[in-house]
């Protein structure tokens, strides 16, 4: 196995090419760029997200300081195979992907469902992760986590009737500030105009939501054994993964930094306050 070379730092997330690597009979699609280093930052994406759902501002800023890699989960976007039906299975896939690239240790930035997968990864192979950023997420069995299914479908239908991306409602507060942040974020996701990823199938959304519901109703895991440095961030009015879960998660992790909660923001607070977030995230990842 060969380590994935970081692409030329002159690339941006809108221009970096999509590459492929095989693991567990799956052909994983991924994008890799930034400063060369032995330990990359792996970005774990959210529910029903492909490579084009990564915020270019966050990715490019991290890439200017670190080597960063994003990837599609099994059956998502250009990655082959059938969508995993459980969060632990998705974690096993992620581990296989990382090993296929030749890495024995990585840093992780995870958002929403990506945070669920990261926690399961720690339970399976704790030494694979070094530092971890958990945004808009919570612990297994956390308050309201299993309710994301009904909320997601509700806002999907709202998006259909209003001709908006559901993330406009799911990720941001529905006031003037939140709506402006939502519009800015969704514009950033469209900056890549060539070689975009394959659209996520509706069947993938259904399977992922089912996996989240099962995980959200499951017994909490013992996270006290993990000594990894962890940065937990969220918005103060997260409807998808209620903000109380961020505090709960940080309490369960013995080496977590003080929780960062952004005001007047929802599930996508890290995107709304990306500039402020990066002022914390970059030093955390580079020190």
From TrEMBL:
<dbReference type="GO" id="GO:0016787">
    <property type="term" value="F:hydrolase activity"/>
</dbReference>
<protein>
    <submittedName>
        <fullName>Alpha/beta hydrolase</fullName>
    </submittedName>
</protein>
<keyword id="KW-0378">Hydrolase</keyword>
<dbReference type="InterPro" id="IPR029058">
    <property type="entry name" value="AB_hydrolase_fold"/>
</dbReference>
<dbReference type="InterPro" id="IPR000073">
    <property type="entry name" value="AB_hydrolase_1"/>
</dbReference>
<dbReference type="Pfam" id="PF00561">
    <property type="entry name" value="Abhydrolase_1"/>
</dbReference>
<feature type="domain" description="AB hydrolase-1">
    <location>
        <begin position="40"/>
        <end position="270"/>
    </location>
</feature>
<dbReference type="InterPro" id="IPR050471">
    <property type="entry name" value="AB_hydrolase"/>
</dbReference>
């Amino acid at each position: 196995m060969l380590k994935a070379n970081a692409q030329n730092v002159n690339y941006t997330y809108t221009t970096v090419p999509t590459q492929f690597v095989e693991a567990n009979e799956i052909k994983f699609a991924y994008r890799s760029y930034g400063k060369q280093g032995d330990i990359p930052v792996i970005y774990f994406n959210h529910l029903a997200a492909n490579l084009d759902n990564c915020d270019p501002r966050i990715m490019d800023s991290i890439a200017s300081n670190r080597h960063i890699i994003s990837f599609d989960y099994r059956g998502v976007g250009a990655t082959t195979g059938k969508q995993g039906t459980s969060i632990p299975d998705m974690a096993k896939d992620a581990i296989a992907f990382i090993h296929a690239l030749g890495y024995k240790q990585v840093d992780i930035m995870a958002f929403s469902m990506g945070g669920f997968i990261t926690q399961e990864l720690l339970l399976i192979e704790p030494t694979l992760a070094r530092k971890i950023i958990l945004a808009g997420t919570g612990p297994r069995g956390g308050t309201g986590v299993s309710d994301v299914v009904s909320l997601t479908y509700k806002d999907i239908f709202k998006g259909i009737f209003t001709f908006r991306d559901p993330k406009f409602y799911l990720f941001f507060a529905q006031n003037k500030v939140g709506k402006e942040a939502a519009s800015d974020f969704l514009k950033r996701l469209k900056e890549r105009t060539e070689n975009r990823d394959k659209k996520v199938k509706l069947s993938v959304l259904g399977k992922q939501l089912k996996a989240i519901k099962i995980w959200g109703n499951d017994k909490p895991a013992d996270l006290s054994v993990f000594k990894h440095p962890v940065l937990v961030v969220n918005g103060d009015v997260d409807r998808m993964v209620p903000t109380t879960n961020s505090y709960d998660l940080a309490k369960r992790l013995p080496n977590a930094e003080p929780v960062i909660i952004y005001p007047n923001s929802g599930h996508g607070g890290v995107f709304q306050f990306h500039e402020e977030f990066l002022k914390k995230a970059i030093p955390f990842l580079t020190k």
